[in-house]
Write a structure and sequence with these properties.
heterodimer; A: 517 residues; mainly alpha; two-stranded antiparallel ribbon; 2 strands; B: 148 residues; 2 domains; flat; DUF1468 (chain B); transmembrane (chain B); membrane (chain B); transmembrane helix (chain B); Tripartite tricarboxylate transporter TctB family protein (chain B)
C-alpha cells in the first residue's frame, strides 16, 4: 500500500517536469483541434502523431498520446455545439442539446458545461485507472503460455465487438490481420515467412506504418473522394463561457451517473465513447427534474453526454495496460505507442516499469486540468478551426502520413507499406470490413502464436495444456462473452439512440471502428 | 445480398490461396500455424458466402455499387490519388521539401482552395514538418537522388 502511494507520489513529481507539462499542453491542444475537425477522428490523430513520440521518454510519449486522446474526445463537442456537426462520433449526443442552446444564444454556456463535464468525467475516470489497473495486473502475473494464448483469443473475439455492421466481416478482417502478422521471421523455427524478398520485413510488418495507413491515409482517401463542402459558419456568441456554483450543484448527480456509465463502458471491450455519450445523455434525461428542457437546450443533456464520453478514456486504458487487450481503436493505437517504446503491456508495467506507468497515470490526471483550461480559454479559436475545409486537410494529412512513416526507419519501404495499408483501409471501410480488427490482430497475433506454440512445446504437443488451469477456463468464458456481447451492445445502442431521439446530426469524424455511428 | 460482396469474398479467397502456396514452401514445422490461420480465414469467408446466398434467397440481389461508390467523385478522387503517387516518386528523385511544396500547391489548387489559404497551409505544413521531424526528432528527410 505504502509502496503504491510512493509510486503515485513519484509519478506526480515526474509528471510535473517542464517537459511533461509542455507535452500535456501541446498534446491537449492538438487533440482538441483534431477532435473539433469533423473530418478527423481521435484514432486517426493519435496514429498520425505517433511517430513524433519516438525520441521522447516513454512516459512523455504516452502522456502526449493520452492528451491527444482526451483532447480529441472533448474537442468533438465544440463543433457539435457551434455548427451542429459532431467532430467525433463521441459527441453525437452533445449536438442534440448543445446546438439548441447555441440557437438560444447560450453557446458560451453550452461550451462551459461541456468543458466542465468533460473535465469531471475524465478526472473521475482516473480513479478507476489507479484502483483497478494494479489489481488486474496482479492477476495477469499468474499467467503462463496457455493463459496468454487464451488472452489473445479473447482480444481477438473483441474484433467481433468492434465490427460496425457484420460480425463475420469483422472476424474475417481479424483473420486477415492474423495472417499478415505471420509475415517475418518464425519465432520458434527461425524460418523466413512471406517476406517477398524484403529484408526489412524480417521483424514483421511495422505496426505504426499499418496504423498510419489504416487510420490516417485511408481517411485522407475517404475525404478525397467526396464533394468538398463548405461547413456552416460557427455561431458567434457573446455570453460568458463558464458555469456557476448553482449550475455545478445541479449538474453533479448527472456527471456522477455518467462517470459510472462511461467508466464501465470504457472497461468493457468493444464498446466506446460513441455509445457512452448516448447512454449518458439518456440517463440524464431519465433522472432529470427538468425533463421538459430536453430537446430544447438542456444543460444536463450536454453534461450527461460529455461526462460519459470522457469517462471512457481512463476506463479503456485499464485492459490495454494490464492485459495488453485494446478494446477499441484509440487504445489499439496507444498500445502501438507503448510497443514502439519497447514496452510490452502487462504486469511488467506495474513492476519493472512502475515509475513510468505511474508518471503516465499522473500525467493523465493533469491532462484533464489542461483540457479544462485550454478548452475554456481557446473555445472561440477552436470554433474557427472547426470550419477548416476538407480540401486543406487532404494534402496536409497525406504529407504527415508520408513523413510519419518515413521517420520510423528512415526508408521508403515503410512509406510503401503505409500506402498499401492506406489503400487496404480505404477498401475495408468501403466494403464494411474492419481496419481496427486488422490492427488488433497485428498486435495480438504474435502474442497468441507464441502462447500456443510454447504451450504445445511444453506439453509435448498435447493440447490439453490449453485447458489445464482455472484461469484458462475463465478466459474461455470471456471469449464466449466477447463473441456474444456485440449482439447485446448493438441492441443496447439501438435502444439508447432511439430513446435519445434517433437523430445523429450531420457528418462526424469517421470512426473506423464504429462507422455506423 | 450485394454484388459488391463477391469482390470481398474473391479477395479473401485470393489471399488464402496466395498464402497457402507460400506456406507449402516452408519447412514442415513452420507450416502448422499459418495453415491454421489460412483455414480459419477460408472457413469464415465460406460462412460469409453461405450468409450471402441465404440473403440472396430471402431479400434478392442488389448491385451495392451505389451504396459503396455513390458519393465518389472519380474526377476528383483519381487526380488526387495520382498526385499522391506522383508525390512519392518526386520525393525519391527531388527530395522532400521541393516535392512537398509542389504537391501541396498542386493539390490545393486542384481542390480550388483560395490562394491565401493555399499559401498559408503549405507554409504551415512545411514548417510543422521541419520543426517536428527535422529539428525535434532529428530525422534526415530525403534529399532526393538528383541532389545526392
Amino acid at each position: 500500500m505504502l509502496e503504491t502511494l510512493a509510486l503515485m507520489g513519484g509519478g506526480f513529481v515526474n509528471a510535473l517536469s517542464p517537459t511533461n507539462l509542455f507535452a500535456m499542453a501541446a498534446g491537449t491542444a492538438i487533440g482538441i483541434v483534431i477532435g473539433c475537425l469533423p473530418g478527423l477522428s481521435a484514432a486517426m490523430g493519435v496514429a498520425l502523431l505517433l511517430p513524433m513520440t519516438f525520441s521522447m521518454e516513454a512516459s512523455t510519449g504516452l502522456i502526449v498520446l493520452g492528451a491527444i486522446y482526451c483532447g480529441a474526445i472533448f474537442g468533438g463537442s465544440i463543433s457539435a455545439i457551434l455548427i451542429h456537426t459532431p467532430g467525433t462520433p463521441a459527441s453525437a449526443a452533445t449536438a442534440i442539446e448543445g446546438y439548441q442552446m447555441t440557437l438560444q444564444g447560450r453557446a458560451g454556456k453550452a461550451l462551459g458545461v461541456s468543458c466542465f463535464s468533460s473535465f469531471c468525467g475524465g478526472l473521475l475516470s482516473c480513479i478507476s485507472l489507479y484502483f483497478f489497473a494494479p489489481l488486474l495486473a496482479q492477476l495477469a502475473m499468474k499467467f503462463g503460455s496457455p493463459e496468454y494464448f487464451w488472452l489473445s483469443i479473447f482480444g481477438l473475439t473483441i474484433i467481433a465487438g468492434v465490427s460496425s455492421k457484420s460480425m463475420i466481416k469483422g472476424l474475417m478482417s481479424g483473420a486477415l490481420g492474423l495472417l499478415i502478422s505471420t509475415i517475418g521471421m518464425d519465432p520458434m523455427e527461425g524460418v523466413k515467412r512471406f517476406m517477398f524478398g524484403q529484408s526489412s520485413l524480417y521483424e514483421g510488418i511495422n505496426v505504426t506504418c499499418a496504423l498510419i495507413g489504416l487510420f490516417s491515409m485511408s481517411q485522407a482517401m475517404i475525404l478525397a473522394e467526396k464533394k468538398i463542402r463548405q461547413r456552416a459558419k460557427a455561431a458567434k456568441f457573446q455570453d460568458k463561457i463558464g458555469v456557476t456554483g448553482a449550475e455545478i450543484k445541479r449538474l453533479t448527480p448527472t456527471i456522477l451517473r455518467s462517470w459510472i456509465i462511461g467508466n464501465l463502458i470504457g472497461i468493457l471491450p468493444g464498446a466506446g465513447a460513441s455509445i457512452a455519450c448516448f447512454m449518458g445523455y439518456n440517463s440524464a434525461r431519465q433522472f432529470s427534474k427538468h425533463k421538459e428542457e430536453f430537446g430544447h437546450g438542456s444543460m444536463e443533456g450536454v453534461a450527461g453526454s460529455e461526462a460519459a464520453n470522457n469517462a471512457v478514456t481512463g476506463g479503456s486504458l485499464i485492459p490495454m495496460l494490464t492485459l495488453g487487450i485494446p478494446g477499441e481503436s484509440v487504445t489499439a493505437v496507444l498500445m502501438g505507442g507503448l510497443i514502439i517504446q519497447g514496452l510490452q503491456p502487462g504486469p511488467e508495467l506495474f513492476t519493472k516499469y512502475a515509475p513510468m506507468t505511474y508518471t503516465f497515470f499522473a500525467g493523465f490526471v493533469l491532462v484533464q486540468f489542461f483540457m479544462l483550461g485550454i478548452g475554456i480559454l481557446g473555445c472561440r479559436g477552436f470554433a474557427q478551426i472547426s470550419r477548416l475545409s476538407d480540401a486543406i486537410l487532404i494534402p496536409s494529412v497525406a504529407v504527415l502520413c508520408v513523413v510519419g512513416s518515413y521517420a520510423i526507419h528512415k526508408n521508403f519501404v515503410d512509406v510503401v507499406i503505409m500506402m498499401i495499408f492506406g489503400v487496404l483501409g480505404y477498401f475495408f471501410r468501403k466494403f464494411d470490413l474492419n481496419p481496427a480488427a486488422v490492427v488488433l490482430a497485428l498486435i495480438l497475433g504474435p502474442l497468441g502464436e507464441k502462447g500456443l506454440r510454447r504451450s504445445l512445446m511444453l506439453s509435448g504437443g498435447n493440447p490439453a495444456i490449453l485447458f489445464s488451469t482455472p484461469i484458462c477456463w475463465v478466459l474461455m468464458v470471456m471469449c464466449i462473452f466477447g463473441i456474444l456481447s456485440p449482439v447485446f451492445m448493438a441492441r443496447m445502442e439501438k435502444k439508447t439512440v432511439e430513446n435519445a431521439g434517433g437523430d445523429i446530426p450531420g457528418e462526424t469524424g469517421d470512426d473506423p471502428v464504429r462507422t455506423s455511428d | 445480398m450485394k454484388k459488391t460482396d463477391i469482390g470481398v469474398v474473391g479477395f479473401m479467397y485470393g489471399v488464402c490461396v496466395l498464402f497457402l502456396v507460400m506456406t507449402l514452401r516452408l519447412k514442415k514445422a513452420a507450416q502448422t500455424y499459418p495453415l491454421f490461420i489460412i483455414t480459419l480465414l477460408a472457413l469464415l469467408t465460406t460462412l460469409y458466402v453461405y450468409n450471402m446466398v441465404k440473403d440472396a434467397k430471402r431479400l434478392g440481389v442488389t448491385s451495392g455499387l451505389e451504396e459503396v461508390f455513390g458519393e465518389t467523385l472519380p474526377g476528383q478522387f483519381a487526380p488526387v490519388m495520382a498526385m499522391i503517387v506522383g508525390y512519392l516518386l518526386a520525393m525519391y528523385y527531388i527530395g522532400f521539401y521541393p516535392s512537398t511544396l509542389i504537391f501541396m500547391v498542386a493539390c490545393l489548387w486542384f481542390l480550388k482552395v483560395p490562394k491565401w489559404q493555399m499559401a498559408a497551409s503549405t507554409l504551415a505544413v512545411v514548417c510543422l514538418v521541419y520543426a517536428a521531424f527535422a529539428m525535434f526528432l532529428g530525422v534526415k528527410l530525403p534529399v532526393g537522388l538528383l541532389f545526392k
